[in-house]
Every structure is written in C-alpha cells, then in structure tokens.
Specification:
One of its GO terms (biological process) is synapse organization. By secondary structure, the chain is α+β, with helices and mostly antiparallel strands. It has four helices and 18 strands. The chain is rod-shaped.
Length: 286
Amino acid sequence: MKVHLILANIFLAVNLHFTGSQAEHQQSSSAENEVVPLKASDDRSEDAAAIKGPVREVLAQSGSTAILPCKITDPGAGTITWMKLRELLTVGTNTHSIDNRFVVMHSSTDWSLQIRAVTLQDAGIYECQVTSHPVQRNFVRLKITEAYSIIPGAPDLHVKQGSSLRLECQLKAAAESPLYVFWYRQGHMINYDEEPGVKVELTKNGSILMVNKTKPTHGGNYTCAPSNAKPAYVMVHVIEEEEKPAAMHGGDRRNVSPSILASNLLVSLLTVISWRIPSLTNLYPT
C-alpha cells in the first residue's frame, strides 16, 4: 500500500512539472509574436519587432518636400491610411492630422504621402496600410539631412592685387541641387551687379565666383547663401602693390647715386646763398 502511495506522489509531481513547463513555453511563444509599438527613438532594434516586411528608405533635405511611396496591386482593395508611430495622418485622400503639411498624392495604384517643408522631427518610420483581408502594410523610413556649405580657404584668404580670385561655394550633406546661390560682399548682393571682371556661375553642388583682376575694393567679407543650405563665409584680403623705394620719396639715401646727392647739395647751397645775399635794390638805392 505504501509503495502504491509513493508511486502516485511521484507521478503527480512529474505531471505538475511538465504542465508548468508547457505553460511557460506558451507564454514565451506568445511574447515573441507580440507586436511591439514603435517608439520615438527610431532605433532599428526596436523597429524590427513591429515591422513585418521590407522597409523602403527615403532621404530628404530639411526644408524640402519629401515623397513617401505606397503602391498597391488592387485599386479597390480597401481604404488606404498613412500612420506614423500609431498616429493617424491620412484616410483615403483626406488629411486626418491637424498638420496640413501631410497630403496624399493619389493616381491609380499610387498613394504617395507628401510632406512639405520637412524638419528633423519628421524623421522616422511611416506605415501605409490597406484595410483589405488580410491587411496590407507597407513601411517607409524617412531620413532627414541638414545641408550646409563651405568655402575652401576660409576663414581668411589672401590674394595679390591684380591677380585672379576664385571662390567656390560647396554644398555638403545635400540631397538635392540648390535653386540658386546668392553671393554677398560686405552684405551687398553681387550676383546681378554686372561688375566688370566679376562672374558668378551656378554649379550642380554650389556656385563659383570669379574675379579676373582683383583690386583693393574687392577685399572684404564674402558670403555664399544657397537656397537649401546654411551659408558660408570667408574674409578676402587684397595685398596691394609694393610701395616704391624710400629713396624715391626722399627717405633713406643710402642707395642714392653720387650724382643725385651732389645735385641735391648744390640746390641746397644756392638756396642758402640767395637767402643770405641782400637784394641789389638794397645795395644800390635809386
């Protein structure tokens, strides 16, 4: 009898052990399949738990317009919505967000999201969702770059009077070419001055300012201001022509020839004599 009781207790303990193990396994499996909401940190490891499918990346420049693509195979599949971090932005062609920078561009199977005047805060994961069965989810990661410009040679550039001057405004971290680049000298725009010998040329990644023969008036603070990037500055110093030797100004006489010295001495003696000799009218009064 005691033997049967011992065997029954052992069987009950083993059964409880396997039952607990199965429960723990089911809990861990359900935790792994749980969809974790995206967080504002936009960390890739956190996004991976929520994203089911490929993620397209779009790079936009701060201040420009970003276009996030969303193509569907069946035009009548259902309502298309755009979301970011569980925030509903658009429903169909209507903007649901209070931010009117979000606009849907719809044409046939294309439901792209347009974001005007993007900022650094607009970066993150966006979801285009189709309320079909099953639900279709498309993800786009928006990256924002903030462009700036540089002028090689800054902050100070020295150029000899009469030589050519070439200033290049280069855009860095830019996602698109500038619409224009304005050049300023001492705060005055010089793009349209038609100053002789001064030429401004727009390039794909900036602008070039050329001065054929520099003058002292060409010195000063130059600024290049692209339409889509932070400006850059450089101070141009024009080195004037060397002054004439001091001997030509009556200064140092060590390099003057003996003939010039003798001539100068003679003129000085005649001046002294004419000053000391009384005039003839005083010697022979009438």
